[in-house]
Structure to design on (231 residues):
C-alpha cells in the first residue's frame, strides 16, 4: 500500500512551498514570498544593503563615500532565517534543488529588467572548495536564471587565479587585500552588460574586485545578482 501512494506523495510535495512545505507554491508560497523574499524591500541601489527609509534610487552612506566598481546590485532576500539555512543547505548539504528554487525566484524577480545583451557570469569558487563540494552553487543558480530568462550563460567568463583564506574570517580591509588580483576575465565582454551571480553578498569586496576585472576587460556595465544580502 505504501508503495502505491508514494508517487502521489512525491507529486504532493513537489508542489509544496520550498520554505514551509505546507502551502502550495512554485517554488514558494505567497506567504513565504512576502515574509522572506519581499519584492518591496528598500535597498541601496548600489550594494543592495537593506535600508530603513523608502525612496527612489536610494544609495547608502558607504556607497556615497566610496563608490563601488559595480553599477548596481539586486538581492532576493536578507541573509537571515530561513534563507540563511537554505543557502547553507545548498552549499554544505548538497541540496542542489535549492539552486533551482533560488534561480527561479531571481528570474521571476528580474523579469524584463535585464537588457537583452546581458551576459550571466557566476563567481568562481576557489579550487579547494570546488573540489570539496563537487559543484559551484553560483553556477548552478546562474544556470537556472539563464534558462528561465533565455539569456546567455558564460559559465567560465571568470576564473579564480589566486586563492586566499576564506573571507568570513577577515575584516573589510583584509577582505579587499585577500581578493585583490584573485580573478581574471576569460570571455569577450567588450561593450556587454555582465550580470555577476553569487549566493551571498557580505562586504561586497569579492564582487567589487570582480567588477574591476570585468571593466578592465571592456564590460560596459556590471550588475550583481545575489540570493541574499547580509545586514
Amino acid at each position: 500500500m505504501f508503495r502505491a501512494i508514494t508517487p502521489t506523495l512525491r507529486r504532493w510535495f513537489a508542489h509544496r512551498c520550498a520554505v514551509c512545505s505546507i502551502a502550495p507554491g512554485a517554488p514558494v508560497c505567497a506567504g513565504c514570498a512576502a515574509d522572506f523574499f519581499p519584492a518591496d524591500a528598500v535597498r541601496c541601489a548600489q550594494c543592495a544593503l537593506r535600508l530603513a527609509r523608502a525612496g527612489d534610487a536610494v544609495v547608502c552612506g558607504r556607497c556615497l563615500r566610496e563608490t563601488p566598481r559595480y553599477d548596481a546590485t539586486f538581492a532576493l532576500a536578507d541573509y537571515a532565517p530561513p534563507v540563511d539555512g537554505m543557502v547553507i543547505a545548498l552549499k554544505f548539504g548538497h541540496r542542489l534543488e535549492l539552486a533551482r528554487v533560488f534561480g527561479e525566484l531571481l528570474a521571476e524577480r528580474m523579469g524584463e529588467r535585464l537588457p537583452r545583451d546581458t551576459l550571466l557570469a557566476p563567481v568562481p569558487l576557489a579550487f579547494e572548495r570546488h573540489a570539496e563540494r563537487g559543484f559551484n552553487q553560483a553556477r548552478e543558480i546562474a544556470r537556472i536564471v539563464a534558462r528561465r530568462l533565455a539569456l546567455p550563460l558564460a559559465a567560465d567568463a571568470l576564473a579564480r587565479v589566486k586563492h586566499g583564506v576564506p573571507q568570513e574570517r577577515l575584516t573589510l580591509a583584509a577582505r579587499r587585500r585577500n581578493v585583490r588580483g584573485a580573478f581574471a576575465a576569460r570571455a569577450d565582454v567588450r561593450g556587454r552588460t555582465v550580470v555577476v551571480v553569487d549566493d551571498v553578498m557580505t562586504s561586497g569586496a569579492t564582487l567589487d574586485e570582480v567588477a574591476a576585472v570585468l571593466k578592465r576587460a571592456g564590460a560596459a556595465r556590471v550588475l550583481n545578482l545575489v540570493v541574499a544580502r547580509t545586514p
Observations:
- The mean pLDDT is 88.
- The CA atoms of residues 166 and 178 lie 9 Å apart.
